Each structure stands twice: as structure tokens, then as C-alpha cells.
Design the sequence.
């Protein structure tokens, strides 16, 4: 069979069709690569897959997706898996206290620095949903004898109000011996993020809701002793949370924001316990900084912030470091591509 | 010679954007009853009623709307006002009788919801949009999660366990901790839906819902046209709007230009309502004149 002159040959037609089909498939695939949602969702990697961008001295413990990771010598190691969050370290740096969170409750555990569970400190589980308890934000007292934490005691059977109070228990004791240290404002979520002071007192975040405006305020609160009323350290009418005490006890790092603002500031302010006040704060970072933690030498801080750390950026939270003193602060990213739990402050010890 | 490539290319683009076209045809441009479509000139301010429902396994037919937010968008001024309507507001419902305003959608779908809000708040609504629970979860997940900074711990000992659950009447405990964080869809749903511990009750929830809308808008700025198929796929059957695709297309650049400081949030706190018990139900009786006066500061009357 001959092909009429001027007509395309069958082989040539087939080739064009194959190429055209390939072009179509390629175009479809290329359109898929333009999708930003995949990038926005972020390819979340296990922190162990990449070295840190900054080599920090000592050890840093962070939480991601229910795992605890230790950062030493620029590399992450997974030290505990399964529901872990909010690590704290004992003053001798030989043990961690961390929260293990399950569906309806959470408990405090003491672990070795390698992540091995040594002891369960609280027993918050119940078969009846509303009789479970939460324990969050553990912090070991400077003398190493006690652990402060936030715990939801029940107001009365059947009450739907749940608020966290600051509790203190002996580190070698049990929940039964724990004592309430604060009385929260009802229906606010309660008192959070306690930090024990060398004086025996306590600072924490106290939440208040203004009945006239229904606005939420939070203040860094100072309490000299158990069940004493205490006093506000941070300004009234603002939201300041997540206090972190410098190693020498002279400064407080915290995250503050204006009412109605979607952004926040990482601030450091001198602490004057005698005058029960905070000095003029220095702003170290803006955007959405979270959960500050001091370096062992008190010269810098670690904190979490989304993506690049710049204001307006969104995304998974990465670890950043910034000098606490000396000129204009320049935050540096310690990680990229991780998805750290920014409700669990990093722990940094020598 | 070029024709096969053009045809193949068009087929590829068509296949890629087919889900968008499908959703546009099925879920946008829906009209309210027999009322004529609103004529909002391009670039003119308009009012939209956002409706959010617990469309879980407990419900058959139209669900209640747990969230009702009036939104005024002024594209020229690049300003947005969000006005949360308390779901327990006891008002005459379009279609008959009186009840909580969240029942209007259940009684007569978007038509009744729009007319009930229009009648009681004396406001003209140009468009409405409705989203279900799982639609919100999927939307947030599809954009890769959102960044939020809860102001306080949101704790709930009786949170409904009705999404992907064997027992939709069961409850679980929820604890959303405060401070800046990145949330996925499931966490966002708990955050906007929880209400049992908040002393502000439904008002606290309204604040949180508006916070999530602002965070979603921030995230949406980072999307482009190629993201649309994935996004609309997450909406299948869980999103409906009266807004046409052309109006949505015009709105996208405006959304990028609106600064957070230009977003005004209004929640009715104070003398706007008072608590009452009607037929064993806890309801909020409206101070209608006060509410309408506040509404008219931003939203045009009918």
C-alpha cells in the first residue's frame, strides 16, 4: 500500500501523537509541581535527618510529634517516642521530667537524659472521661527537691469548668502529696508555666478574662509562697506568657502581645523581686516567637518561630537562637524543615 | 503539526482543573430561594454571611449552624469587618416560629438562614457561604495548617467525639494550650468548637473562630492557581456558596492586599443580650435596637 504524496506517513503521525500525548502528561505533571500547598504543608523531616544549622554548646532537648530529641554536637538524637512533650531538666542535669500526653489525660515522668523512663510521677488516667486529669508544664525547683506543674483539679462532680492550677510535689514523692499553690480565675484555662525561684517563691502565667469586654489578659505573676495572693510582674492590659528565668535569676524572658494583635514579641526584662516588678523590656524578636529558654551561660536564648522567623511568615515552627544582650538582636535559625512542638519549651543544659 | 500538541495541552490543563470546574458548577453561584441574584458591582463593598455547621453523623438533612459570621468586605478601602452572631440568639425564624438563630439553616437551609439574619439584624446580605466540620479540617490540612496563638488554655471535658467516630454521641477531653503554634485541621476544629470551659461560653468561641479566619487568610496569600484543584477537592460536598466564580476571582487579589490591622472584629459583649430560659433551653434574648445600631455602623440596612 502506497502513501499518497503530500500526506503524512503513518509512522510520522504515530510519532507526533506519542509526543503530543507525552507533552500533555508532562504538562499535567508540571502543573502539579506549581502547587504551593505541598510546600506550605512542609515536607516534615525527622530532626535526626539533618545537622543543625548552628552548633550550640551543651545539650538541647526539644519535642516534635510526640518524640523527644537531644541536640548535641550539632546532631539530633531521638531519645524518647510516643506522646512526649514539655521536657524540663533537674538542676544537676542528670534527669529530665517530661509530660506524656494521651487522648484524655497526661502524666509527668522522670527520665534519664538518654530518655529512659525512671519513674511515673503522676497518675491522671481514669476510665470515666471527665475524671481524667491533665498535668502540664513541669519545672524542677532550683534545689531539685520539688517539681512545679499545672494540674486540673475538679471543682465538683459534673462541673464542666476545667482550669489548671499550679501544683507542687516532691520529686521523690507522688501526686497524693502534691499541693495546690495557686487559685486560678474560673473559666479562664487557669495558671500555667510555673518556674520555681531560689527564694522558694514562684513565677507563672496567670490568666484573667475581663467581664466587661470579654478580652483575655495574661500576666507574669509572682507568688512568694503557697496560696499567697501574689502580684503581677508584667503590665496590666497585655498578654505576657511563657516566662523563662535566666540562670542567675536576674532576668525574665517572655512572649508578650497586645490585645487584638495576631503577632507577639520575645522580650527580656530585668527581674526585681524586692520591688515586685519587671524593668524595661528589650525586644529580641517579633512575629510569632514561642517558648523561650536561656542558654546555660545566660548570654543567649533559644525559642521557636515559624519558617524563616520573619514577621508575617507562617509554617512549621523551627528553632532559633538570639543573643540576650549587645546591640540589635539578630536571630539565627538553628533548624529548617522540622516541625517542633512550640508549646513545649526547649531545655538547654551544659 | 502543532494541533495535536495544542489538543493534548488543553486536555492536560482541562484534566488538572476539572475538579475546580466541577465544584464551581455544583457548589458556587447557588441562589437563595427565588430571590434574584444580587448585583454587586466589581470593586464595590459587599456583605457575606459565613455559616459553619456540625455536619457530623448525628444530623440528617440540614444541620444547625454553630457559627454565623457576617463579613463586610470593602475592596477599595481594603478593609474587612467580621461580626459574630451568637448562635443562641432567640429570634423569629424565617419560615415560621421562633427559636435559636442557629436553627434557621436547619429549618430552611441557606434561604432561611439569610432571611432570618436579614430580618432580625436589619441588614442586606449579598452572598452566603457554608462549610461543614470536615470541610474545615480538610481545608486547614490542605493549606498545610495554620499558625495561631491561643490567648489562654482551651480545656473541655465534654467535647463531642463525633468526627470519624463509632459513637457520635460520645465525648472526649480536649486541651489546646496557649501560645504561638502551628495547628493542623483536627486541632483547629477542637479550638474553634470547644466551649464548655470558657467562662465567655459562645462569645469565647466566636473570638476563636474569627482568629482562625484571619489565620486562614494569611495562609491563603501563599497559594496560587495550581493549588485550586487540591483545595476544592477538600470542599467536595462540604462547602457551598452563592458567590459566583467571577466574583471569587475578583476577590482573591483583594484578600492579598488587606492588612491584618484593617480587619475589625466585632463580638456582641455586654448589654446586647440577656440570658433566659425558654422551653428548657438556655437562650440569649436580643436587645434588637442596640444590636441593629451596632450592625449599621458597618453593614448597610436592607
Sequence:
Amino acid at each position: 500500500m502506497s502513501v499518497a504524496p503530500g500526506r503524512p506517513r503513518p509512522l510520522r503521525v504515530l510519532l507526533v501523537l506519542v509526543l503530543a500525548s507525552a507533552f500533555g502528561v508532562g504538562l499535567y505533571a508540571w502543573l502539579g509541581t506549581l502547587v504551593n500547598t505541598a510546600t506550605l504543608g512542609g515536607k516534615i523531616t525527622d530532626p535526626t535527618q539533618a545537622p543543625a544549622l548552628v552548633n550550640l554548646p551543651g545539650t538541647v532537648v526539644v519535642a516534635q510529634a510526640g518524640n523527644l530529641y537531644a541536640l548535641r554536637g550539632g546532631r539530633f538524637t531521638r531519645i524518647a517516642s510516643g506522646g512526649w512533650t514539655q521536657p524540663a531538666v533537674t538542676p544537676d542535669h542528670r534527669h529530665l521530667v517530661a509530660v506524656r500526653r494521651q487522648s484524655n489525660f497526661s502524666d509527668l515522668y522522670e527520665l534519664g537524659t538518654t530518655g529512659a523512663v525512671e519513674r511515673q510521677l503522676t497518675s491522671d488516667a481514669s476510665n470515666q472521661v471527665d475524671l481524667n486529669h491533665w498535668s502540664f508544664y513541669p519545672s524542677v525547683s532550683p534545689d531539685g527537691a520539688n517539681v512545679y506543674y499545672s494540674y486540673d483539679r475538679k471543682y465538683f462532680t459534673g462541673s464542666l469548668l476545667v482550669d489548671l492550677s499550679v501544683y507542687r510535689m516532691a520529686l521523690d514523692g507522688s501526686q497524693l502529696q502534691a499541693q495546690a499553690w495557686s487559685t486560678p480565675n474560673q473559666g479562664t484555662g487557669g495558671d500555667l508555666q510555673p518556674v520555681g525561684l531560689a527564694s522558694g517563691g514562684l513565677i507563672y502565667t496567670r490568666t484573667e478574662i475581663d467581664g466587661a469586654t470579654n478580652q483575655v489578659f495574661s500576666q507574669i505573676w509572682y507568688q512568694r509562697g503557697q496560696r499567697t495572693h501574689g502580684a503581677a510582674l508584667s503590665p496590666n492590659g497585655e498578654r505576657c506568657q511563657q516566662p523563662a528565668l535566666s540562670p542567675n535569676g536576674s532576668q525574665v524572658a517572655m512572649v508578650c502581645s497586645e490585645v487584638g494583635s495576631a503577632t507577639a514579641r520575645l522580650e527580656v526584662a530585668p527581674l526585681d523581686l524586692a520591688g515586685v516588678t519587671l524593668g524595661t523590656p528589650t525586644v529580641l524578636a517579633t512575629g510569632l516567637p514561642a517558648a523561650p529558654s536561656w542558654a546555660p551561660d545566660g548570654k543567649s536564648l533559644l525559642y521557636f518561630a515559624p519558617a524563616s522567623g520573619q514577621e508575617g511568615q507562617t509554617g512549621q515552627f523551627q528553632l532559633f537562637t538570639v543573643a540576650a544582650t549587645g546591640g540589635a538582636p539578630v536571630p539565627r535559625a538553628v533548624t529548617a524543615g522540622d516541625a517542633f512542638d512550640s508549646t513545649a519549651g526547649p531545655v538547654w543544659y551544659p | 503539526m502543532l494541533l495535536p500538541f495544542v489538543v493534548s495541552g488543553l486536555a492536560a490543563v482541562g484534566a488538572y482543573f476539572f475538579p475546580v470546574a466541577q465544584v464551581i458548577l455544583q457548589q458556587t453561584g447557588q441562589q437563595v430561594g427565588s430571590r434574584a441574584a444580587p448585583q454587586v458591582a466589581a470593586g464595590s463593598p459587599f456583605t457575606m454571611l459565613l455559616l459553619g455547621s456540625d455536619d457530623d453523623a448525628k444530623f440528617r438533612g440540614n444541620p444547625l449552624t454553630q457559627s454565623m459570621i457576617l463579613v463586610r468586605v470593602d475592596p477599595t478601602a481594603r478593609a474587612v469587618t467580621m461580626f459574630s452572631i451568637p448562635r443562641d440568639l432567640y429570634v423569629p425564624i424565617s419560615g415560621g416560629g421562633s427559636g435559636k438563630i442557629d436553627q434557621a439553616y436547619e429549618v430552611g437551609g441557606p434561604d432561611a438562614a439569610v432571611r432570618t439574619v436579614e430580618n432580625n439584624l436589619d441588614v442586606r446580605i449579598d452572598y452566603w457561604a457554608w462549610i461543614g466540620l470536615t470541610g474545615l479540617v480538610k481545608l486547614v490540612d490542605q493549606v498545610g495548617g495554620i499558625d495561631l496563638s491561643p490567648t489562654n488554655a482551651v480545656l473541655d471535658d465534654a467535647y463531642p467525639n463525633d468526627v470519624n467516630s463509632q459513637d457520635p454521641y460520645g465525648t472526649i477531653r480536649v486541651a489546646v494550650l496557649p501560645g504561638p503554634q502551628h495547628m493542623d485541621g483536627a486541632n483547629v476544629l477542637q479550638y474553634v468548637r470547644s466551649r464548655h470551659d470558657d467562662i465567655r461560653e459562645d462569645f469565647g468561641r466566636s473570638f476563636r473562630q474569627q482568629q482562625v479566619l484571619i489565620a486562614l487568610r494569611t495562609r491563603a496569600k501563599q497559594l496560587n492557581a495550581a493549588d485550586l484543584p487540591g483545595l476544592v477537592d477538600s470542599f467536595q460536598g462540604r462547602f457551598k456558596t452563592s458567590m459566583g466564580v467571577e466574583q471569587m476571582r475578583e476577590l482573591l487579589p483583594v484578600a492579598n492586599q488587606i492588612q491584618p490591622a484593617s480587619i475589625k472584629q466585632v463580638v456582641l459583649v455586654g448589654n446586647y443580650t440577656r440570658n433566659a430560659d425558654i422551653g428548657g433551653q438556655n437562650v440569649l434574648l436580643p436587645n434588637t435596637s442596640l444590636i441593629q445600631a451596632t450592625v449599621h455602623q458597618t453593614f448597610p440596612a436592607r
